[in-house]
Amino acid sequence: MLRKKLLILFVLLLSACAGTEEKSELLTILGVDEKIVDTDQESENTYDALTLLKRGEAYFIKEDYIEAVSEFERFLSLHPFHRMAAFSQYKLAMSYFHQIHTIDRDPAPMEKALAAFQKVKTQFPKSLYVDEATEKIAELKKRQGEHQFQIGRFYFRTEAYPAAIARFEKVLARFEKGELTEKTLFFLGRSHFGAGDHEASLKVFDALLTSYPDSQYKKKVGKIRRKITTAPPAS
Predict the structure, then answer these.
(1) What's the N-to-C CA distance of the chain in angstroms?
(2) Which of 7, 159, 198, 232 has its CA 20 to 30 A from that of 123?
C-alpha cells in the first residue's frame, strides 16, 4: 500500500513539473483507466488527500472541468497544508481557466480563475507554478479589459451613451495602458459626442492624441472635430 501511494505521489509530481501538458497515460498509472472514480461512493478513503487528487486529475484530463473544480476545492478545504496543496490550487485555477470561452460570455469563470491564480502567488510563492500563474493573471486581466470594452461597445451601438461612457471610464480606471486604452479613449470621445457633450468629447480626443500621436483613429478624430467646430452654436 505504501509503495502504491509513493508511486501515485511520484506521478503527480511529474505531472506538476510538466506544466499544463497532461499525458493521458497518467490515468492508467493512477489506476483510473478510462473510467472516472465514483465520487458518490462512500469509503474510508473517499476524502483521503491522494484519492481527491487522483479524482481531480482524472476529471481534468477528461476535460470535465466542473467536476475537477469540486475535487480540487474539496482537497484544499480538507488538506490545506498538504505538500500537494500548491499543485491542487494551480489545477483548480486551470480548471476555471479552461471553462472560459469568449470575452462576450459569462465572466464568472474568468473572475474565479483570476482569483485562483492570484492565490497560487500569494499562498504558494515558492511553488513551481508561480511563473505560469503570473502569465495567466496578465492574460486574464487583458481579457477582463476586453470584456468590459465590448460591453461599452454594445451600449455605444445601441446609443445608450451614458452607459457606454460609464463602462469606458471603468476600463480606463482599471486596466493597463496600451491598445485597449487607445480604442477606449476613441469610443469614449465618440460616446460624449453622441450624448451631445462636445466639450467632453474634445477633451477626451485631446488625451487620445497626446498619448497616441500616431493613433489609428487620428483621421476619424479629425472628422469629428470638424463637425464640432463647424456646428452652429446651440440656441
Answers:
(1) 89
(2) 7
Cell (9 digits) for 198: 462636445
Name, in order, each residue with C-beta under 8 angstroms of 18's C-beta and a sequence gap of 6 or more.
Answer: none
Looking at residue 233, its pLDDT comes to 59
Reply yes or no on whether the pLDDT at 28 is more than 50. no
Judge if pTM exceeds 0.90: no
Between CA 160 and CA 107 the distance in angstroms is 22
Task: Give the CATH superfamily of 18-158.
Answer: Tetratricopeptide repeat domain (1.25.40.10)
Taking phi over 0 as left and psi of -120 to 50 as alpha, with beta for the rest, 212 belongs to beta
Measured CA to CA, the distance from residue 60 to residue 99 in angstroms comes to 11
Residue 45: predicted pLDDT: 60
Contact predicate 9/29, CB 8 Å: no
Task: Please tell me the distance from the alpha carbon of residue 127 to that of residue 186, in angstroms, as a whole number.
Answer: 42
Answer whether residue 129 shows pLDDT above 90. yes
Residue 68, SS3 per DSSP: helix
Amino acid at 73: E
